[in-house]
Design a protein that fits this description.
Order of helices and strands: EHHHHHHHHHHHHHHHHHHHHHHE
Number of strands: 2
Helix content: 55-70%
Strand content: under 5%
Structural class: mainly alpha
Number of helices: 22
Largest sheet: 2 strands, antiparallel
Length: 506
Amino acid sequence: MCGMPSGETTPAVEYEPDVVRPTKEDEVAALGSELFGGPLGRRALLGTSWWTPVRVVALVALGMFALGMVQKLPCYDSGWFFGASSQYTHACYSDIPHLYQGRGFADGLVPYFDKLPGDMDYLEYPVLTGVFMEVAAWLTPGDGSMQHQEQFYWFVNAGMLMVCAAVIAVCTVRTHRRRPWDGLLVALAPAFALTATINWDLLAVALLAAAMLMWSRGRALAFGVLLGLATAAKFYPFLILGPLLILCWRAGRWRAYGTALGGAVAAWLVVNVPVLLLAPDGWAKFYRFSHDRGVDFGSIFLIVSQRWNIAISPDMANNWAMVLMVLICAGLTALTLTAPRRPRFAQLAFLIIAAFILTNKVYSPQYVLWLVPLAALARPRWRDFLIWQACEVAYFLGIWMYLAYTTSGDAHKGLPTEGYQLAVAVHLLGTLYLCAVVVRDIWLPERDVVRRSGDDDPSGGVLDGAPDVFVLGPAARPEYEEPARFEGPVVEWGADGASPAGRSSL
């Protein structure tokens, strides 16, 4: 109007839609958005609003974390202290208050250096997690009743874990530059909120999420350092180095892989070597415990053992788990080297961690946290994600109801063995389902929602858009034509902000 001749309109402005809106490509996301006022508008897309994706997702993640804390309220009042079965019937169990006294923190014992009374001679957690637990103990007042101290210890840990949850949400948002709203999958995941304060797994998950962000930015050394720290907090993160090796082999990115590997090894050694040298028995407890632990809750081995009355020793379970993992790794290697397009890093990272979970001799309910950020990056489709989450929530309720049944004596409150086995099967099938759709996306890249949006491998860093140098199968034949890559269109926005002409269904 001002400064424009009468009768003239503002010329159309070319704008490339850097941000992919899930409400435009996902029917479940579009339907769910109606609860909050409908799909995102032009101002949110252009980033002119204060409510940027990072801020929205972080606030939603913190809100869901707080709801998860509220869900533990029945146990906070009494369940952790006065009733073994009530913490299960209310599904509010947490290791944190129990281990405050059970692992010597209440008595000022130093993890790995001081022996614990009873059968558990040393703390059975990796070093960085032990440091996290010890810092929380320092922040817990030592006066008052033991119940008061344990309550305060849980609150201190919950506050520290809330920071980890925010880090996970923000890193997931920023890993895929054009798909920040996929971070809502993490923020709104019900199993994430329900299991966040059961144990200390969020520390390793946050470090791995930060590592994935660094790799997506091409910072191989920072990725390696963070991955090494994540492995010092929990065993599983180092597994993603395997599929990353195959991806770098296919793309010929050996230098980046070497830098990442060197950074990971160095960071892990910096954390572990001092404790290894000064307290070797305490340091080795985690590895002895993991090896000697018998078949436990949530595993396929438990179903086999219970239903067919087969005694499965720890060594037998370890050997079978190792064989299954080797076979799966061989299959993932073949898939990576023969797929029509090089798989995305997040897809293989999800698959290798899921394989470890499925073949492990124990599945604690908080292990779902390991997969949530990777699932959001590997398969950002709300329908599939929510199907899997429903299965995990069913298992979350199932294990507590089963423990209530086994601890309630003759009252038999809860879920009997057959019902618990069904809950385990639901968890296994839900995870297998999500793995199946990710494998399908790899083999049929035109089905991959991330690549349909115009990206190649936004979490791949130096792998993103890199040409292949080593492939097998049909893709290696001279006459093979690589599947066409969808390129995002240039969109013309009108002066009135209406929907642009010629827009594709992003």
